[in-house]
Amino acid sequence: MRIKAPKDFWSGVMFVGLAVVAFVTSQGYSLGTSTKMGPGYFPVVLSLVLGILGLVLVARSLVLAGEALEAFHGRAIAVLVVAIVAFGLMIGKLGLVVALGLVTAFSAMASAQFRAFEVVALSAFVTLISVLIFVVALRLPLSVWPSF
Asked: What are the domain boundaries of the chain?
């Protein structure tokens, strides 16, 4: 048995792993029936769908040829993890606009094609859309501007 499509294989393994975690985690909830769904119904069904998708990808990787895996980009992953943690730490004091602007700009450094103008434009767009969705439309109690 030879893996002909490593990308498909590892994607399938990831989906199966997520499915197992979701299925095990949802076992503490009542399943209910299809007409009267309990809180565990959706996670169980979703985990089954993810598991089936994962198994299809693994089987496909053994039959069809596909792309090889690219090199592991540890720097990019580290930058994104630090950006997410920084956002969580900054949003309380700096507000949504400043925190999201800084985090978007910082996360753009994970890319090898970092261009200042595009980063500023992306940061402004993401911040505007986020304020419109979360503060205006959903009326979430988020501080928009810094509170010192």
From this structure: 6-63, 74-137
